[in-house]
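I hope you will forgive my troubling you with a question about protein structure. I set the record out below, with my sincere thanks for your time.
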Amino acid sequence: MIVDTHLHVIDQTALDYPWLAGVEPLNRNWTYDDYKLEARRAGIDATFHMEVDVAPERIEDETAYIGTLADRPNSLIVAAIASCRPEDEGFAAYLERQQANPLVKGFRRVLHVMQDDLSEGARFRENIKLLAGTGLTFDLCVLPRQLDKAIALADLAPDVTFILDHCGVPDIAGDARQPWQDGIAELAKRPNVVAKISGVVAYADAETWIADTLRPWVEHTIKSFGWDRVVWGSDWPVCTLGGGLMAWVAATHALLEGASEDERRKLLSENARRIWSL
């Protein structure tokens, strides 16, 4: 069975998502009910909700809303990666509140759509250090040209576990191997960084990709990080831009054809259960 570490629920009746206005294919409701049956059919038996960059004043409302979904009978949702603003003065108090919520297993501040120097601010960096010793992870969503920013954060806080989203957001459709390839290899030298095998179908040509299109990118990421430091994510509903959940799950199994059963279990479930103490 699969642990999906990257589900986005979008409910515009409950929360505000300013960025959706610029992404028309996703600008509608994508509910947990839409996801759950397809996920079960795909072999997913546990799911992490990943924050969806709601309006800043709604961040804690989003976590509370996801809590109501997790509380449903037989819910797949077992954890939440909450949004945060490490650049803000109130981060320490926010962190303390989230530590009281057992559903919250980590945080993410979207970086790939922000100015490159956001993570270089003194307050941002000092606040990231506060995660040390909490057991809470920090997801890194960066572009290939920003991988040096991810490396800097990993070096700054060696006692914090960082999760690299979407194999580092490579431009697969454009076959842009550099600086992505070298950046991934360098980041993987940091033992406190885990790579998430997710999102890649949205970066390939939606009309033409097959499993072998994704193979060089996925295999380089796994080879760089090793089987003990990779987890899997659907990136639903963003994966619908590249064929959907079932297509991505099928491609994943095809890409793992040469892996051992132990390696497959590590990527698909065991590493996630260990890293987040499920």
User: Anything to note?
Assistant: The mean pLDDT is 97. The radius of gyration is 17 Å. The chain has one domain: 2-275. The domain at 2-275 is CATH 3.20.20.140 (TIM Barrel).
